Amino acid sequence: xxxxxxxxxxxxxxxxxxxxxxxxxxxxxxxxxxxxxxxxxxxxxxxxxxxxxxxxxxxxxxxxxxxxxxxxxxxxxxxxxxxxxxxxxxxxxxxxxxxxxxxxxxxxxxxxxxxxxxxxxxxxxxxxxxxxxxxxxxxxxxxxxxxxxxxxxxxxxxxxxxxxxxxxxx
Length: 170
Hints:
Elements: H1 3-11, H2 18-29, H3 37-49, E1 53-58, E2 64-68, H4 70-79, H5 88-99, H6 107-123, H7 129-144
Antiparallel strand pairs: 1-2
């Protein structure tokens, strides 16, 4: 998954601080691999350098907040509507993040992912053709059987210790 794009997607909900973005990306994407907090901060540095986020002041308890610039909004919107992942897990996480955002119409992204897999299945050849077609069938079936989306706003609570409780598990 693109941590960069998932962070931009979360920032469409409003300003957030680094560790808040870390928790939101992990919860919304259902990531299988841990996300290093240092990766979040280095990604924020690159997003600022690239003009996609800017400072939004500080939180009530003094943490630096970040918000999207116009370019950041455009890049987030593109990622939230077009399949960009080359791998199955990337597309799953992209769709899960999109479906977790309140007010999102995920139909364009679902349609884009569907087109991607149909194209891959049709173009499959060589020794991996059978595997590619079977994976495409699985992806299309998963898209057909998606449960209703459960979206939530950005969390503002700060855990004292331990892990956050997922709002979707509640």
